[in-house]
Amino acid sequence: MISLKSIFILLGVIIFLHLLASLNLWYYRFAWFDMLMHFLGGFWSALIFAYLNLKFNQADCKKLWFLGILTISFVSLVGVLWEFSEYLWGIGAYFGNNQYFTGLAQNGLRDTLGDLLFDLMGGLTFFAFWTVLKLKRNFLK
Length: 141
Known about the structure:
Elements: H1 4-24, H2 26-29, H3 31-56, H4 64-95, H5 99-103, H6 109-140
Helix pairs in contact: 1-3, 3-4, 3-6, 4-6
């Protein structure tokens, strides 16, 4: 389930949806589409964290609550870095006349906090699925 292949497949889906949305102005027409994309981004970030944890964590984390905190922390870090990049793209739009970058400008604190909320919801959803699969696998042993 958690593999490089699954990471790249989900990334491909996210990029494909972003391209469709950009070409068809879905971010402007449908307020919910940005929320969906941040949810998927949070889910994808948590997937990356799970992959890295499984690949490089020699001592498997036995405390589920601690693994949850680490997962959400990683998703939060990625989300905050993304919001900083959107902010910087928006500032760059004022120095150039590039319409693409103008569309990435932040729309205020409400937009930023909403984006981070949906990043976290995506990460929590992935963690819930991951936890259920881990518990089911341990139960069936």
